[in-house]
Amino acid sequence: MAVLNIKVLGPGCMNCKKLLETTQEAVKQSGLEATIEYVTNMSEITKYVMMTPALVVNEKVMHQGKPLPTVQKIKDLIARAQ
After folding, report:
1. pLDDT of residue 1
2. Which domain covers residue 65, as residue numbers?
3. Is the pTM of this model over 0.90?
4. pLDDT digit string, tens, across residues 20-77
């Protein structure tokens, strides 16, 4: 299986950091091989979304805005993106 490329997009706010932590936990629980990148550069973020926080898996936007997804929801989103 290929390594997943996951990006958490956000300017560094509390919700963005929470999404990063939740995503890291989801990947850990799933036992998947993934690179997780935290993107805070607004010019990079706007290539994908206009609302943060956002989750991008293999270049597909899987979530943006609130409410923040749970660990289980992120696991489901990652599975759908593969």
Report:
1. 55
2. 4-81
3. yes
4. 999 999 999 999 999 999 999 999 999 999 999 999 999 999 999 999 999 999 999 9
CB 33 within 8 A of CB 3: yes
How many folded domains does the chain comprise? 1
Mention every residue, 6+ apart, whose C-beta is less than 8 A from residue 20. 8, 10, 36, 38
Sequential DSSP letters for 28-69: HHHT--EEEEEE--HHHHTTT-SSSSEEEETTEEEEESSSPP
The CATH number linked to 35 is 3.40.30.10
Residue 44 Cα distances to 22, 40, 56, 70, 75, angstroms: 21, 8, 12, 25, 24
Q: Which of 10, 17, 1, 21 is nearest to 56 (CA)?
A: 10
- In this structure, the strands spanning 60-64 and 54-57 are antiparallel
